[in-house]
Design goal:
There is one protein chain. The N and C termini lie close together (8 Å). Helix 1 runs antiparallel to helix 2 and helix 2 packs antiparallel against helix 3. The chain has three helices and five strands. It is of the alpha+beta class. It has a five-stranded antiparallel sheet, covered by helices on one side.
Length: 139
């Protein structure tokens, strides 16, 4: 049975660090190794930062869902601005931002987005390697 962790944060940058901590805690609780945990945390940070930065819905909440199963770790970040879909921006060397989705593409085995009835969800899947991600009994 897969392990699941879901939580909400307000749509504001100041809540992203706390969300990263929740992601790291869930991964540690599941026994996910340091290398994969670091990659997942970076991907979560980028997807969360995009959601709180680009969502145009006032007072929105962003939903984070982590699912760990035998095949790997699946991360979903959803916000209610369902029509504003993500695109990779190829930043010039002198640009300060715009590299988040390129980083997600580099770290994740796959990523994408979908439009649900009331939200947009950006997701990433990262494969487990070796003994990482032992799901404790009862999770």
């Amino acid at each position: 049975m897969p392990s699941l962790k879901t939580f909400l944060i307000p749509k504001h940058r100041r809540y992203v660090p706390g969300a990263r901590q929740q992601v790291r805690k869930a991964l540690a609780d599941w026994g996910v190794g340091d290398e994969l945990a670091h990659s997942v945390t970076l991907v979560a940070n980028e997807l969360l930062t995009n959601a709180v930065t680009h969502c145009r819905i006032p007072s929105a909440r962003v939903r984070v869902t982590l699912t760990l199963d035998d095949g790997g770790l699946f991360l979903e970040v959803a916000d209610p601005d369902r029509d504003r879909l993500p695109t990779i921006h190829r930043s010039r060397p002198d640009e300060e931002g715009g590299r988040g989705l390129a980083l997600v593409e580099a770290l994740a085995d796959s990523w994408g987005h979908r439009q649900d009835p009331y939200t947009k969800c950006v997701w990433a899947r990262l494969a487990l390697t070796g003994a990482e991600g032992h799901v404790p009994a009862g999770s």
